[in-house]
Structure formats: C-alpha cells, structure tokens
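May I ask you to comment on the folded chain given beneath this request?
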Amino acid sequence: MVNVTALAGVLQTLLTTTANELARATKLVKRQRNLSGADWVQTLVFGYLENPSASVEALSEWAADHDLTISPQGLDEWFCAEGVECLKQLAPRVVGVLVETQPAAVPLLERFNGVYVEDGTSVPLPPGLEGTYPGSGGNDPKGRDRAAIKFYVRSEVHRGHVSDLSIGPGKQADVTAAQEAPRLPEGALRLKDLGYFDTQLLAADTAAGVWWINRLPSNVSIRVGDEPSVRPLAAWLKEQTADTLEVAVHVGTEYPVACRLLVTRCPEEVRQKRLRQLEKRARKKGRAVSDRQRVLCAWTVLITNLSAEQLTLEEAWVLYRTRWQIELLFKLWKSQGRLAQALGHRDERVLCEVLAKLVAVLVQHWLLLLAGPLLEPRSPKKRLGVIRRRLDRIVTALHDLARLAEELDRLQQRLRRLRRRNRRKKKPSTWELLNDPKLANLRLS
C-alpha cells in the first residue's frame, strides 16, 4: 500500500508548484493570466481521469465546475508547442518522485532487491509529426505508422510502482531505451522480453550484481557446455528428445555471455497456437515465418544468470510470467485511460492530449496502489471505478495538504474493502503461482 501522507505531498507539489514552474520555464505562461499553468494541468489531468474521452468543450465545463472560467476556444489555445513541452517535462517528474509503498507479501519476490519489468508502448500521431516523432513505417494507407510516440516504462512489480519513464519516437528500438535507462540496484531481478535481448547489457547486469531472466530470439547461437563451437539454438533444439532441459551455455557470438539455459517442450496444441499467432504478425509486416521461428514455437526457452540452487526451473518460469504485468498496465492505460485515442486533429493538440493522458494515467496509477500492488487479486477496473467516484473530493482538497491526506486515507480504506478475486482452479493466476510455484504446469505454458 501507498503511504497516504507522502502521496498527498507529492500530488500537491507536482500538480501545483511544479506545474506552475514548468509552465513558466517552457514559456507556456509568460504573464499573469486568468488560468495558471497549474490550473491548465489540473484541468487536463483530472478532466481526463474523470472522462478519458472528454472533448475540449467537456474540459471547459469541468474547469467551470471547479471555479475556473475559460471558454473551449480559449482552452484550445493552450494546446500549443509550449504546452507540449510543459507536459513532456512533467510526465517523468510523476515517476521520478517515488512514494514509499508496502510490497506484496510474496516470498519468491522477497528474494530480490526489487523485481523489474520493462517495455515500450507506442501511440500513433498525425503524419505531420513524422519529422519529430517518426514511426515504424509500414503500409497503412491512412499513414498511421508514419508518426508515433513511444513510452518506455520500467515497473517494479513487488511494490507495484512505475520506477522509470522515457519518451521517444516510435521507431526507436526497445533496446536503445533500455541502454539509456538508469542502472538497477545490486540484487535486483530484471525480466526481459525479446526486444530487450542484448548480451552486452546482460553481461553488464551480471557484473553489477543484477540478476536476470530473458527470452531468446530464434536467430541466436549458443555454445553448450564444453563444446568447442557455437551453433544455432534452433538446430540444437531439433536434436533434443527430452521434454525438459537445463544446461550451461554461452549465448551470442560477438559478445558471448555465460548463463543457464532452461528449456521445456510444449504440447502440440500450444505449438500450433503460437505458430498461428506468429504467421498473423508476419503477414501484417509482409514477412515470412522462418524455419528457426517454427522450431522455437514448440519450446519455452529462457536464460538466466541465477543458478539451480538459487532458482528452480518452475520458479524461473513463474517469475518470468510476471513480466506480463507491464502488458496489463499498458492495456489498462489504453482501454480505461484512452491513452492512444485523441479527439483533436492539429499536431500540437494531439500531442498535448496524449501527454496529458500519460500524466493522468501515472497519477491514476499512484491512486490505484492505495489498494496495494496491481499484482494482488483485486480488479483494477473496480479500483478505478471507486477512484473516479471520489475524484471530486481529491480535486477540492488539492490545496489543503491535511485535507488531501484525509481524502486519500478514506479512498484507501474504501479500496481495501474491495473483494479479492476468487482462486482459479484450472488456470492459476500469476499471484497464485508466485505464492505456490508447484502449481505451475510448464508444458501448458
């Protein structure tokens, strides 16, 4: 859970003092106006928190309901290049000030000094922004792939907070953002997806005392045990007859890294499902599925620098499943926060809306954590419903720190009363598996 006194101070500072300072620093506010920088930020953040599909007219009405008078036309003028820069600088500040939180009581997670997952999510932008935020390209006739903004996010799943955020163009490679991100603390565990596979980063983590579990791409080469030469992972897998293997390997050729290879064969129905998904993605990108990719569809393959004494195969698989939490976070931001949907058409208007919604979902995330980490079995959608019903109380109390802390405390009590989800007998949840890794059926992954 989040410390409400600390959260009250952070919210008040960020959405009043910091917002005003950034508005002046970015020249969004050059003189005294009816609406301050903080007023504008609060209108967007709380307006979108209350109604993620709000139009400028609806935001103007929200402002009027909170004693701020500005017409829709006047508000629209704030959606400018200076407004973009103000919001772009504010978003990382919401992440940069970490509020103390109570971690989930999970012994498997407690072995590490934080368990971190990282990924990027892209939001399409108007084609006119291609020069500043080039997208990944593609053949979309509407030009939706020509311009995009990408948010790189790192989350610590034990406590639940978002620990790092960076903003870049849609075409930026995931591994580039990871290389530029702050180093993790010694004893931390990093769970990495295919897009973040980089043997240099893995070696650097090992040297810094950081543990990791990573998936392997199909085109990687390995050297098994004391074998003198490297060979493609797919070729080695084709030779295996056992369903489960754990071997010492060196991965990569240019910068080989020593690690432990964990391999489990999948049932035929799982292989077929993976292959269908792979072919669908390949068709979308105008590519063909390679023979190596087809081979890996039949296996679950992980590498780690943790020894068998430190972590069993079942525990490694269960821990890696928690990487999905960041995908669920992005899904919540986009489905409930409408992060990828903008009503405007002007370039600056769209960028301001996207960045304001980013700030809104980050504030929303802190409020959701009042009930405990999202990993815990309480529905995020139900948590969000409670927050939206009590949002006006928080807005009204924003300038009174003691009152704001009281409102957050009441919100926390209400959120903690939400019923936990029932245990799933046939397909245990990640929460259940973390508390009892023996429930894992590796071959059904």
The chain has a mean pLDDT of 90. The chain has 18 helices and ten strands.
